[in-house]
Write a structure and sequence with these properties.
By secondary structure, the chain is an alpha+beta fold. It is built from 4 helices and 7 strands; from the N terminus they run E-H-E-H-E-E-E-H-E-E-H. Strands 1-6-7-2-5-4-3 form a 7-stranded antiparallel sheet. The radius of gyration is 18 Å and the shape is globular.
Length: 151
């Protein structure tokens, strides 16, 4: 699987509880644009509407070779392709306080299909974010010392 785009901010702002892979209902030019790596997941979220999950806030700019005769919304709502069981589990989990659903990364599977890794997440407090930064710095220092002294 090839990662086409990643939501790095989500890994920093949230604790990932569970992940699900979902298909996305895209137009032809959107698929071309996504495979070219022209998608932004910053500020995107998943919304449940009438027992259907939708990706909102993701920006997919117009593919440069697409017909410019039609005006389309680059941040339009895109339907996620999930099973009914996955939808009910996600919808039930979101009802708990502090739990939300965010997109983590857009991937291309072995068959060439565009998929979206979605996660149930819980928000981090400011001090938790500081602890994460501190732990990463410590790990980086240890790895640097190991490499330096050939341990």
């Amino acid at each position: 699987m090839k990662v086409l785009a990643s939501n790095k901010k989500a890994y920093f702002d949230f604790d990932v509880l569970d992940t699900v892979t979902a298909g996305i209902n895209l137009l032809g030019w959107e698929v071309k644009s996504v495979k070219a790596g022209k998608i932004s997941l910053a500020g995107a979220y998943i919304k449940n509407v009438n027992n259907e999950m939708f990706l909102e806030g993701a920006n997919i700019p117009m593919w440069k070779f697409a017909s410019s005769s039609s005006k389309v919304d680059e941040k339009r709502r895109r339907k996620l392709l999930l099973t009914k069981r996955q939808i009910t589990v996600l919808a039930a989990s979101v009802k708990q306080p502090g739990i939300t659903i965010v997109p983590l990364e857009v991937i291309q599977d072995d068959r060439g299909l565009v998929k979206l890794n979605v996660a149930l997440v819980k928000g981090r407090k400011k001090f938790d974010k500081r602890n994460v930064i501190k732990e990463k710095d410590i790990k980086r220092g240890i790895e640097r010392d190991r490499k330096k002294y050939n341990i």
